[in-house]
Amino acid sequence: MSPPRATPLSPDERRASIVRATTPVLLDKGPDLTTRDIAQAAGVAEGTIFKVFESKEAVVQAVVDHLLDPADTCAELAALHPADLTEAVREVVGLLQRRIREFTTVAVALRMRPPEPADPASHAEHHRVHVERSERLLAAVVAVLAPWQHQLRLPVDTVASTLRSMAFATSHPMLSDDALSDPADVAAVLLHGLLQPPVGAADAVHPTATHPAPEEATC
């Protein structure tokens, strides 16, 4: 049975549709991804793919670029409606951790390597894009935290940057050992530090956490 006829879309819309549909499949299959997988995920015939992409590799590169672009993450951040600062930090950390894991999963699966040294103009453009994306993401995090900035000890943009760094450190496979990975635990550390809360206040910090006494260290 042949795939259903694709809904008419502009080339840019078709590219975006294929990229979004391919992203979860690439996360699942990595380098074993085929054009048939892409077509099935996007609900199009394989020939439709090659009307807007030169090759499967071009689709994969577009997915990588999509994961690096913070547009979707910023939209998800804008859709958050936390009730308080603790919930805001927890939700932002969880969202950022998920996006970081998605990209690193693809990077590891595809055995991605750092790009070859480019000419100065290309390097400058790469840096400009990186800075612009970083600033957009940071602004989106700031917007979530802004209603509670009067409760913060540091400027809200500094807090947002710290939160983003913690999300990266607690989710990147080469940095995190999962000892501190739950967004609620990360939020508790960021907001309350490493000290035990006063007696009777533990539930306010982390109502569901159960932390057994540490075992004696062995070296």
Architecture overview:
This protein has 219 residues and is an all-alpha fold. It has two domains: 7-67, Homeodomain-like (Arc Repressor Mutant, subunit A, Orthogonal Bundle); 69-112 and 120-197. The chain has ten helices and no strands. It has helices at 11-29, 35-42, 46-52, 56-68, 71-78, 85-109, 120-145, 156-169, 183-192, 202-205. Helix 6 (85-109) crosses helix 8, helix 6 crosses helix 9 (183-192) and helix 7 packs across helix 8. The protein starts with 10 loop residues before the first helix and ends in a 14-residue tail after the last helix.
Topology summary:
Layout: H1 11-29, H2 35-42, H3 46-52, H4 56-68, H5 71-78, H6 85-109, H7 120-145, H8 156-169, H9 183-192, H10 202-205
Helix pairs in contact: 1-2, 1-4, 5-7, 6-8, 6-9, 7-8
In short:
The protein has 219 residues and is mainly alpha-helical. It has helices at 11-29, 35-42, 46-52, 56-68, 71-78, 85-109, 120-145, 156-169, 183-192, 202-205. Residues 204-219 have low confidence and may be disordered.
Please count the helical segments. Answer: 10
- Name the poorly predicted regions: 204-219
Rg over CA atoms: 21 Å
Structural class call reads mainly alpha
Fraction of residues in β-strands: under 5%
Straight-line N-to-C gap: 62 Å
Q: How many runs of DSSP E, i.e. beta strands?
A: 0
- Give the biggest beta sheet: none
Helix content: 55-70%
Instruction: Give the SSE string.
Output: HHHHHHHHHH
InterPro entries: Homeodomain-like_sf (IPR009057), HTH-type_TetR-like_transc_reg (IPR050109), HTH_TetR (IPR001647)
Organism: Auraticoccus monumenti
Protein name: DNA-binding transcriptional regulator, AcrR family
Domain HTH tetR-type: 12-71
